[in-house]
Amino acid sequence: MTVKTESIKLSTRGNTDIIDITDALSLLVSESGINNGIVTVFSPSATSAITTIEYETGCVSDFKRLFDEIVPQNRDYSHNLKWGDGNGHSHVRAALLKASFSVPFVERRLTLGTWQHIIFLDFDNRPRQRELVVQIMGE
Amino acid sequence: MTVKTESIKLSTRGNTDIIDITDALSLLVSESGINNGIVTVFSPSATSAITTIEYETGCVSDFKRLFDEIVPQNRDYSHNLKWGDGNGHSHVRAALLKASFSVPFVERRLTLGTWQHIIFLDFDNRPRQRELVVQIMGE
Amino acid sequence: MTVKTESIKLSTRGNTDIIDITDALSLLVSESGINNGIVTVFSPSATSAITTIEYETGCVSDFKRLFDEIVPQNRDYSHNLKWGDGNGHSHVRAALLKASFSVPFVERRLTLGTWQHIIFLDFDNRPRQRELVVQIMGE
Hints:
Helix content of chain A: 25-40%
Strand order of the largest sheet of chain A: 1-8-3-5-6
Order of helices and strands of chain A: EEHEEHHHEEEE
Largest sheet of chain A: 5 strands, antiparallel
Number of strands of chain A: 8
Oligomer: homotrimer
Largest interface: A-B, 34 and 32 residues
């Protein structure tokens, strides 16, 4: 049984930029030397999140619209009134969708469905440099 | 320390069918030969998700209503305009609720609360055959 | 490779009380004797959830507002009509946000971002005594 900690570095455009991290993650798992287990992808950030989706432009824009509707950018936020950085909506979106995601892998391959891709969402209101934590655990 | 990969097969009616998988999961954990650890239930699909709820008809219908309200089926979706399969809402609901869920177990028993059941939600717009990945890890 | 099961006890005020559990969790991880791995925090309850946020009063009140808007307390719930306990909204909020959260740790430290805190949300409609399950796994 082994634990390996890797990372994925990303340059994002912010503003609910949605980035497919499936290939980067698959590569880390396949090269980890661990055959079976789970990989936990974690974003050490308060304005981003991780989930899965069918990564085609339709689904991606439909998913963005959800956040624009239930957590709109252009309204009052207590966070903005206090700190003036204008990313109150980013914090609420990230807390709702969560910064952590775990996927099983078997024989060094993620157990994803055919159309299922792992995505990183940067909800911040400006471009950011991000570094995700990838913890691979198994035997 | 050991990893075991099991599965749960389900026939669903789609359309936010909500299925209690607690008993199936408890059985897999109790028979795994692993005493303490975490079990990760993962749906290899882009139109389904996993969470917990008090599994009584009231809570289940209240939870369905939430998705009908914040991600309604009958409106335009970019996904539907491109692919014509009518399940744009299914993708958004699944990406929001997420396809992965991890539960600790102690002495071969899930650490669930009294009223807490693990549920699989099939958001697709038609009946589906599903096979969930159940990764049990511990010692 | 080792598994350790710990717990965090909390007295909450209910009504979407949001409690910072970062310090309690960091202490359990640092004293676990396990250097690298993941910690899974699980709430054995059907009316509470766990996520991360920048823990300042602005973000916290903005996040509460989201739940008041998309899952309001004062409306009909099938759960309430059946059981009369008035916490139908609590169940829906908890099922949406989920009772489980996993964080990697490296050299006995959680890999959290600078402003990122782990929070427990008690959505029930009355004060509660809670005991979270903390499963630490690694080597």
